[in-house]
Amino acid sequence: MSVAIENFVKTIYKNDTNDSNDTKPGNIAKKLGISNAAATDMAKKLASRNLLQYEKYQALQLTDEGTKMALNVIRKHRLWEALLFKLFDMSLHEIHREAELLEHETSNFLADRISEYLGNPKFDPHGDPIPNANGEITTIDTSIALSNTQEGKTYIISRLMSDDKEFFDFCALNGLKYGNSIIVTKQFNKNKMTQITINNNNIILNEDFTNIIYVNETNY
Amino acid sequence: MSVAIENFVKTIYKNDTNDSNDTKPGNIAKKLGISNAAATDMAKKLASRNLLQYEKYQALQLTDEGTKMALNVIRKHRLWEALLFKLFDMSLHEIHREAELLEHETSNFLADRISEYLGNPKFDPHGDPIPNANGEITTIDTSIALSNTQEGKTYIISRLMSDDKEFFDFCALNGLKYGNSIIVTKQFNKNKMTQITINNNNIILNEDFTNIIYVNETNY
DNA sequence: AATTAAATTTAAGTAAGCTTAAATATTTTT
DNA sequence: AAAAATATTTAAGCTTACTTAAATTTAATT
Ligand SMILES: [Mn+2]
Ligand SMILES: [Mn+2]
Ligand SMILES: [Mn+2]
Ligand SMILES: [Mn+2]
Q1: What region holds the HTH dtxR-type domain (chains A, B) (predicted)?
Q2: pLDDT band at A220 (very low <50, low <70, confident <90, very high)
């Protein structure tokens, strides 16, 4: 499959699982940086190849085959991120940038070698789950957005759902890293802002950030 | 630059440095598996971009810029081969197959990280020299083809110049590996066949093989 | 409910990288 | 040196993945 097709189904999949907006050609176009017309064309083509269902003016829906393809690409993306992070200690932004390209030129064989080498990890360095070789995500995600946490409790950072360099730079600067521990000290304005304590620093985050930082409760 | 262009200049470079046939569009077409017409078109386009010199019916000649691009792609190819070989113990054929794709989707930044991680190696697992970040091959190659060796002498395998699975499988089976030691026990029929001893086995190789296996003399 | 705004689709066109077939030039053989 | 064989180039056309502009449909506003 071509790079264009792989990125297209992947973007649909991620829009469906992570975002609230509907999965119409226009929204996919925006994310891919192409015109609406191009996205509509592509949607029709992929429908004829049984990768998705397309009905005029309706949201796009991946078929099982399309979902499988998306998960296969996502698997490769996240395995690359895990490998580059481990070997070269590159930043979250850098590993994402490289993985975005490498994911399309990686055989299933090589993906399996990478996975094996890393001990078949279930999560990438962002905390995103890595689909297995059958295109299944077996892990149950119990994490919640920071905006939904409770004052006074301690949490472990489980996911940083972003592709944005600025965000990652901010995270790196403040110790906001997959696996690190934080205390939620205050929720402001109906959870539109959240104060946390990490490494003895107090940080106030607005909803742009608290909606994409996911955490798990701890027992302490 | 596109994959097509990178493979094109790389193929010209390799034809110039490794092969005896002239570097006309037809020969490049054959190696790339495209039509002569396509190769001629591409040659004209690359000439207009100052990557090579094109004159009707003449051999193609890379400009400095074209050569630099070729060496940059070759650097990435060989770094990938070295990394995959080291990490995953893949065969020479497998690492080549993957590198052929990955080489086009690798930033200079990532190439430098790979090189660094490997200790800036000067050779890949085939024994081919790895250009440095400036696109220079600093290593002086003193190796000779097995067909040009002398009876009774001991040599170290320095290069296996092939992309062929069958050849690599044969090599792997018989211990013909970069760095291994062999004794040339006999040269037959004006060096069209060569008998060597390796791991106490005698093997007779014909010129298909002795022309692509390179070795260095030892002092013993 | 009608009007306006926004999103989606259709239509027409482009560039890259190929193809095959025909025309032309070069190389080899006689 | 001519003829035949081979290689190269030109010409015409195809597919993929895009573009912009116009037409149409849907959604939002009054
Ligand atoms: Mn990523
Ligand atoms: Mn991608
Ligand atoms: Mn190789
Ligand atoms: Mn290649």
Answers
A1: 1-63
A2: low
- b/e code B88-102 from CB counts within 10 Å (16+ = b): bebbbbbbbbbbbbb
Whether the predicted model's global pTM rises above the 0.85 cut:
yes
Q: Write the residue in B97, B110, B116 that is nearest to A98 by C-beta.
A: B110
For residue range B34-70, what is the model confidence (pLDDT) as tens digits? Answer: 999 999 999 999 999 999 999 999 999 999 999 999 9
For the CA of A53 and the C1' of C27, the distance in angstroms is: 58
CATH code for the domain of B201: 2.30.30.90
Q: Name the residue among A174, A67, A73, A83 with its Cα closest to residue A124.
A: A83
Q: In CATH, what number is assigned to the domain containing residue B11? A: 1.10.10.10
Co-location of B156 and B120 in the same domain = no
B113 vs A: CB within 8 A: yes
Residue B211 and residue B148 share a domain = yes
Give per-residue pLDDT as tens, A181-210: 999 999 997 778 999 999 999 999 999 999
Among the bound ligands, the one closest to the CA of A161: 1
Domain tally for chain B? 3
Q: Which domain holds residue B32?
A: 3-62
